[in-house]
Amino acid sequence: MKILVCISHVPDTTAKINFTNGDTEFDASGVQFVINPNDEFGLTRAIWFKEQAGATVTVVNVGGADAEATLRKALAIGADEAIRINTTPTDGFFVAKQLAEVVKSGGYDLVIAGKESLDYNGAMVPGMLAGLAGYDFVNGCIKLDVNGSDVTAVREIDGGKETISAKLPLVVAGQKGLVEEKDLRIPNMRGIMQARTKALTVLEPIAATATTKAVKFEKPAPKSAVKLISPDNLDELVNLLHNEAKVI
Amino acid sequence: MSILIYAESAEGKFKKTAFELASYAKKIAAETGTTVTAVTINVSDASALAAYGVDKALNVNTDKLKAFNAKAYADVIKQAAAKESAKFILFSSNTDSLYIAPLIAVGLEAGYASNVVGLPQSISPFQVRRHAFSNKAFTVTEITTDVKVLAIGKNSFGLVESASSLSQEDFSPSLNDNDFTVKVESSEKVTGKVTIADAEVVVSGGRGLKGPENWGLLEDLASALGAATACSKPVSDLGWRPHSEHVGQTGKPVAANLYIALGISGAIQHIAGINSSKVKVVINADADAPFFKVADYGVVGDIFEIVPKLTEKIKAFKAQNS
Questions:
Q1: Deepest in the core among A2, A94, A212, A239, taking most CB within 10 A?
Q2: Domains: count for chain B
Q3: What is the ipTM of this complex?
Q4: Tens digits of residue pLDDT in A98-126
């Protein structure tokens, strides 16, 4: 089984978010970047398939040279090879177009991506990629098993979960649950050394037009101070929630 | 040309978000001088949409679509969009709608913006404000294609009543076998419990509750409020509560009217996930907990003393006001 894992290179979850250039660009200075957490669950599951069933795992990112550190980390935790498509990921459709090209030319059986990236939260690339590649698609996947070309996936739904059957080739958008948090891997020295000699291929982008653009960024308005209520005066809290906030 | 919405339903009844979506669509329709058409799937009577300004409902009723199937549902909505020459196709931010929307957008090569908050800032060029960076910021996104797909954040617009004379017609799109290659084999749904996605009020617990055996305290408060229960990431990692209750940046997002945090310190990742909630209350023994910086109301003290008292007060209040 040939697996492709799509990796976004995103600010660490604890990063402070600031903008620059008249609030038109994300300010990356001093920000630590990581593998998008939703992607990392999928990557870890892909490596599990590799170890259990002899799959090969390729990771791919659409981005600049700065994303290579993130791809190297993916190689260090067990991916076999990496591809970087050398362009600025302008919008979800543009990224999906680039990825679809890789999927088609590589003949991957299973494509795993995070259900959304924690920077732009577009939640659209996996579905669009499936559409462009002509693959079936399972979103919000929290459990994934493959037997031959039969796939069993569990999808999270509002208030529960759903067990789904599908066939390869397939695009899966994953999240926490694909593997447990404790099963995520930290690169060890051997992995890091091996990653240096694994192939990281840089491809030039295909021509594609973005369908949206981020015109401007805004930070939330500063919050007014919390109203503290004495533990001995909980009637006041009920009163405020009813009469002031009007939420009960 | 009209604005098409997918009015999501469960067991034949519209979800509340469908009415919010209709309200939103009506506003754009008024601004652009057009009408609102809703696609409904397995709802026998769509007349409830009339109160929120929907002009026409295309009702699809077929056993084939009994189980959710994103590809088939997308196919239905695409055919409805073609029939109506829709320039806007709008979705709620429910799990199923978010599954369908990218399939539609890519099929029509239409620009798609998810997580949209508030009305468009401008119609031409078309610009909307959306949540990004896990609620730590907003982007103003411009959609540059002729057909536009939007997913509107829950509780980001509200319900606006606007009576219309709704016309309803049966709609029978063509479905092919290719639409059904991904199959739902079984589903488990918690019944009789409010889900985090649908809840107006969410009561959430952190490590301050000290152990899973103390969750009765939280559940009592939640049940008095008719609220869903949730938890912080450490609590789900420790296995005190199921993953499905984990809310935060890597868990479920919460956009409730009222979010009550019990014994949650308020790590930046937690706040990111719940920040779209309108009103936030924190009860925590540690007055320096970061949650107090983002909360609207706070009580500093022992949750084991405060929460049962608060539950009684809420019960008394509900008894009086029902």
A1: A212
A2: 2
A3: 0.95
A4: 999 999 999 999 999 999 999 999 999 99
Q: Which tokens belong to A56? A: 């090969």
- Say whether both B169 and B80 belong to one domain: yes
Model pLDDT for residues A141-186, shown as the tens digit of each residue: 999 999 999 999 999 998 889 999 999 999 999 999 999 888 999 9
Enter the pTM of the model: 0.94
> Which residue is closest to A157 within chain B, CA to CA?
B95
- For A237, which residue in chain B has the nearest alpha carbon? B297
- Select from B163, B169, B148 the least CA-distant residue to B28: B148
Q: Is residue B154 situated within a structural domain?
A: yes
- Selecting from A13, A181, A226 the residue whose C-beta is nearest the C-beta of B269 gives A13
CATH architecture for residues A2-220: 3-Layer(aba) Sandwich (3.40)
Residue B214, domain extent: 201-321
| Same domain assignment for residues B212 and B266 | yes
CB pairs A-B closer than 8 Å:
256
* Same structural domain, B91 and B224: no
Alpha-carbon dihedral sign for residues B193, B198, B199, B200: negative
